Amino acid sequence: MVPTEENKKSAGIISADIREQFDNLLAEPIVRKGLDFIKNDDKRRIEEQIQITEIPAPPFAEEERAEDFKRRFTELGLSDVYLDAEGNTIGLMKGSREGLKLVVSAHLDTVFPKGYDAKVTIDDKGVIHAPGISDDAAGLAALLSIARTLKETGIRTVGDILFVGTVGEEGRGDLRGVKHLFSTVKDVDGFISIDGDGCENIIYLGLGSKRFEFTFKGPGGHSFMAFGDVPNPIHAMGRAIDKIANISVPDEPRTTYSVSVVGGGTSVNSIATDAVMMTDTRSVCPEQLDKTVSELVNCVKMAVIEENTSLKIPWDSEDNIRLEIEKIGDRPSGVCLPDTLHVQVAWAATEAIGGTPQLELPGSTDSSIPINLGVPALTLGGGGKGTGIHSPQESFDPTDAYFAVQRVFLTILAFTGIVGKTDPLLPKNSGYKTPQSG
Ligand SMILES: [Zn+2]
Q: Is the whole model's pTM more than 0.90, yes or no?
């Protein structure tokens, strides 16, 4: 169900149960101790954020950072620490009651290619500069700080907390880490991803996207001598782009498409042998996404037929342009209403740290997979202010970043409950099916 304007108004109405949970949590001396610990852990957390950033983690090559993260999990006393088959780092903090399980994660990978310079510098204003310093080293360091807080304060949760550093969140990684997690760990009842900056934003909707690479192949030839005898793959691609540009999509649910990368050809006096383009289609609504994707694929197929038939080449001739279609990305969309329990919890936690909660537009983050599976899931910021995200100029201003860590800490405790103090708010409900394969 896609939230309408009407039910968006219900955002921020916190139920009595959740109010009571937060009143109880904030009145607990051990929780206050935890909040203070997080504030005092600021320097150490930032040091770790820098250390993690300086271990390069390009897409599909996160092993070194994952191994380092595993070592940190072990030092923090987490149990059952291991790297899974996809490369995710996993560690458990056991709760008192069998069954209830919350995953708290941040992503290990960056968008930067192999060989990038991961050296960190700090300017005279205290702003930290390095690729990946905010996205998502801030989240990874926040996650460690929370585990340390639970350990040092001796807070015992009722539900289990599974701490995870995921691989493949960005770009062509296509959420491979979190997809693997949910196809192997069957009993997750709630999910928090610490990603992005800030301490007030709440992402609770998944933005679905499907990405394709289309390759047009032909015999090629001389631009003058072969003209009229062989079809032109680049012209076929041009016809396709023209058709795609005329696809109409609704504003609600917001749906978008783009031909994002094009390539092909060898020299100016040749009819090319191949042309290639990549497309990106997104929608909040799964049915609309599929509809627009099939329209887009149809445009490309029609364009190839038009180019081939324009030359009157026999339909079965080898000289016709051949089209290859490869799906290179498939991220599910996922929706729930803004007054759902877990969104209210995040809202209350944001207010508890003195923030103004902001419900964000649907995002394409690790949470998209659990949201799509019907598991309560949130993406919450790792604090501070990130700029130049996904660029080599990325930077992180750590001022007051600990608020974000405190917010996630309170959200976790509200979900899992504290032994002898509060009950878990998270319902035990892991009836999800295996995720869609990509
Ligand atoms: Zn990220």
A: no
